[in-house]
Specification:
A hairpin with a 2-residue loop joins strand 3 and strand 4. Helix 2 packs across helix 3, helix 4 runs antiparallel to helix 5 and helix 10 runs antiparallel to helix 11. The radius of gyration is 25 Å and the shape is globular. With about 375 residues, the chain is an alpha/beta fold. It is about 50% helix and about 10% strand. The strands form two sheets. The chain has a seven-stranded mixed β-sheet, with helices on both faces. About 35% of the residues are buried. It is an enzyme of class 3 (hydrolase). It comes from Paralvinella palmiformis. Belongs to the XPG/RAD2 endonuclease family. FEN1 subfamily.
């Protein structure tokens, strides 16, 4: 889930913190990608006749197809992706996981009814709600990434937290995920829609944490408390407090403790034993590997092993896999070129309009006085 309604709150109160961009403009960037989120997307989006793709043996292959082609698309555009896989979820997330389990059980019942009634549209809808990323999906994707020459990291706990740690350590430029809590964990840049299909024509959305904090006039600690009030995976929100009210309360009282001291408990029902302090600790000091010690290496794809795995074992078309491997090899050479802003730091920028006006003023002044420096011929 991430943070409930955070993207809208940022759009309302810090619009300049959000920028839409094309994938080609991230040439030379290293990006840490939430692997589980991607795999989940592929299992839902890469389908045929409303069902997940399978090979001749009936094994699901949607996740492999999505990962293979979307990764190639990124690499062709000069992006160097690193995938981060979830570890063991924190104990505090058990409540959220229980809710998801209940929703799955409800979807299973609804799916059965839709199938009995022959309601194909609802069958497809409820089938998607039953999609779950398994350990087998993860392991198959890791194997594919290894053969493609793309690095991956096994996070000890939450993938978004590990991705954010990589950003803060300067190992990567941004986190690629649909979950907004990467910002809550402190990632300076978040990219949404990065792994979407090219056919969807969705621009990539960039969120800049420093601009969020500046425009909303919040410290990182206040921002974390706002995210907890909005609703996160670790604890329930306060019923009756919506996004606008949550923002106003943080602006007024600065932290949850002072909010609770002044809150009208008759109007707003605070959950019993509300573990907001533990949630805050998880956002401020999550369980992550030391990002400084993580070495990221992008290598040449192993075409022979890719054919063995994707064609002979998983039933993919050989020509397409060979073609994909060649694209990876070709793109790897161009993506090693750096971005100019990695070598030069811009200290000041003068707008074209202002420069033009200053130029006109200078010309008029020279015409009147007859002065000014003349370039020697």
């Amino acid at each position: 889930m991430g943070i409930h309604g955070l993207s809208k709150v940022i759009g309302d109160y810090a619009p300049s913190a959000v920028k839409e961009n094309e994938i080609k403009n991230f040439f030379g960037r290293k990006v840490a990608i939430d692997a589980s989120m991607c795999i989940y997307q592929f299992l839902i989006a890469v389908r045929q006749d409303g069902n997940v793709l399978t090979n001749a043996e009936g094994e699901t292959t949607s996740h492999l197809m999505g990962l293979f082609y979307r990764t190639i698309r990124m690499v062709e555009n000069g992006i160097k992706p690193v995938y981060v896989f979830d570890g063991k979820p924190p104990d505090m997330k058990s409540g959220e996981l229980s809710k998801r389990k209940e929703k799955r059980e409800e979807a299973e019942k609804a799916l059965q009814k839709a199938e009995e009634a022959g309601e194909q549209e609802n069958v497809e809808k409820y089938s998607k709600r039953l999609v779950k990323v398994t350990r087998e999906h993860n392991e198959e994707c890791k194997q594919l990434l290894k053969l493609m020459g793309i690095p991956y990291v096994n996070a000890p706990c939450e993938a978004e937290a590990q991705c954010a740690a990589l950003v803060k350590a300067g190992k990567v430029y941004a986190v690629g995920t649909e979950d907004m809590d990467a910002l809550t964990f402190g990632s300076t840049v978040l990219l949404r829609h990065l792994t979407f299909s090219e056919a969807r024509k969705m621009p990539i959305k960039e969120f800049y944490l420093d601009r969020v904090l500046r425009e909303m006039n919040l410290s990182q600690e206040e921002f974390i408390d706002l995210c907890i009030l909005l609703g996160c995976d670790y604890c329930d929100s306060i019923r009756g407090i919506g996004p606008k009210r949550a923002y106003d309360l943080i602006k007024q009282h600065k932290n949850i403790e002072d909010i609770l001291k002044h809150l009208d408990t008759k109007k707003y029902n605070v959950p019993e034993e509300w573990p907001y302090e533990q949630a805050r600790k998880l956002f401020k000091a999550p369980d992550v590997m030391d990002a400084e010690k993580i070495e990221l290496k992008w290598t040449e794809p192993d075409e022979k092993a890719l054919i063995q795995y994707m064609v002979e074992e998983k039933g993919f078309n050989e020509d397409r896999i060979r073609n994909g491997a060649k694209k990876l090899s070709k793109s790897r050479g161009t993506s090693t070129q750096g971005r100019l802003d990695n070598f030069f730091k811009v200290t000041s920028v003068t707008s074209t309009k202002r420069k033009s006006e200053e130029g006109k003023g200078s010309t008029k002044k020279k015409a009147k006085t007859g002065g000014g420096f003349k370039r020697p011929k």
